[in-house]
């Protein structure tokens, strides 16, 4: 009888632990519905179609950045330079549209079309990301230090491009054949803005890479145990360079979108955007210790951060309090992540003990 009672208590404890673990894994969904529900009842017009479209357009910027660094964080890395890459790539786009490619030896300036500007800017972002990955792997520099240094370098470079000035009026000139850049941020397809399409397309591509391609499995393996991944034949350094390259590409794409929406580029654009992106990734369930995370979780995390930010603005909450609340959200997300890790470890131990 005593044995049965003990067994029942153990089973009850395991079930409670399992329920708690499931709730922790679903925390992003719960947070999303709780925050959206709160603002729906407290803010007039929060769920109006026009408001939702504007809100999702804002979310798409942070989502692109967050999606880009999800692989980085899964490998137990970090990238603090993505906000600076966003701003710098926006300046490059603005320079190409307003100044063109100057050829002093011929005394002319070539004004490329938008179809050429976009891939050029993406290449610039990708190269900066690749440089981060190369420095981190080749010289064994901590990702935090490397990308912090890169952030300052790129911020300075963005200021040098225009001498600290803004490139305004980036609609282009029909006579130069470089019009249409503003349509990226203001255009729509089937009534849905291009920026929202871009967000979901990028999310779909990265999710496919994570789930279906060997590269995705290698990313998770490196984050789980880098030494074991290396011994199994995975080219760890190459994978790391590529994850930082992807982060740079996504940051460049976000820079194009922001610049297009503003129809102007400024060196300070993207300042502190990396913090919101990291918060979205962590809130979405990606572990800062590496080895765990999902693209869908990151996307939902971006929605949580975006809805929280826009909802607070619509409520008239001070910008200072918004910063405090975002900071609290980041800390809580990390604490919950640690709780999930401990509960998963205990559940694994309990499962092993029961099997024995």
UniProtKB/TrEMBL annotation:
CDD domains: TM_PBP1_transp_AraH_like. It holds the Pfam family BPD_transp_2. The lineage of its organism: Bacteria, Pseudomonadati, Pseudomonadota, Gammaproteobacteria, Oceanospirillales. It is a multi-pass membrane protein. GO terms for cellular component: plasma membrane. Belongs to the binding-protein-dependent transport system permease family. AraH/RbsC subfamily. Keywords: Cell inner membrane, Cell membrane, Membrane, Transmembrane, Transmembrane helix, Transport. It is found in: Cell inner membrane. The keyword Cell cycle does not apply. The chain crosses the membrane at residues 29-52, 64-97, 103-129, 141-163, 183-210, 241-264, 270-288, 295-314, 320-336. GO terms for molecular function: transmembrane transporter activity. This is Erythritol ABC transporter membrane protein. It comes from Marinomonas alcarazii.
């Amino acid at each position: 009888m005593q044995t049965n009672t003990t067994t029942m208590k153990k089973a009850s404890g395991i079930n409670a632990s399992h329920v708690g673990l499931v709730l922790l894994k679903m925390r992003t969904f719960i947070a999303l519905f709780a925050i959206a529900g709160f603002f729906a009842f407290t803010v007039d017009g929060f769920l109006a179609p026009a408001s939702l479209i504007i809100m999702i357009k804002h979310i798409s910027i942070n989502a692109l950045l967050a999606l880009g660094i999800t692989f980085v964080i899964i490998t137990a890395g970090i990238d603090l330079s993505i906000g600076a890459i966003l701003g710098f790539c926006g300046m490059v786009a603005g320079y190409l549209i307003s100044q063109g490619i100057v050829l002093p030896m011929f005394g002319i300036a070539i004004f490329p079309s938008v179809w050429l500007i976009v891939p050029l800017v993406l290449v610039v972002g990708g190269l900066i990301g690749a440089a981060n990955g190369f420095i981190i792997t080749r010289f064994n520099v901590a990702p935090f230090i490397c990308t912090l240094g890169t952030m300052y370098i790129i911020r300075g470079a963005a200021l040098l491009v225009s001498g600290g000035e803004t490139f305004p009026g980036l609609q282009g000139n029909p006579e130069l054949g470089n019009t249409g850049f503003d349509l990226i941020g203001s255009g729509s397809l089937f009534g849905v803005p291009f920026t929202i399409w871009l967000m979901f397309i990028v999310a779909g591509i990265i999710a496919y890479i994570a789930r279906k391609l060997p590269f995705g499995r290698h990313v998770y393996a490196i984050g789980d145990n880098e030494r074991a991944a290396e011994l199994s034949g995975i080219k760890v350094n190459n994978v790391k360079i590529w994850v930082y390259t992807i982060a740079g590409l996504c940051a460049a794409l976000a820079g194009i979108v922001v610049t297009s929406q503003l129809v102007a580029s400024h060196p300070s654009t993207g300042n502190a955007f990396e913090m919101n992106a990291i918060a979205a990734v962590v809130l979405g369930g990606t572990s800062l210790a590496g080895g765990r995370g999902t693209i869908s979780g990151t996307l939902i995390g971006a929605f949580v951060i975006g809805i929280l930010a826009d909802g607070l603005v619509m409520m008239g909450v001070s910008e200072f309090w918004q910063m405090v609340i975002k900071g609290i959200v980041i800390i809580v997300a990390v604490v919950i992540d640690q709780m999930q890790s401990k509960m998963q470890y205990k559940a694994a131990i309990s499962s092993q003990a029961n099997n024995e």
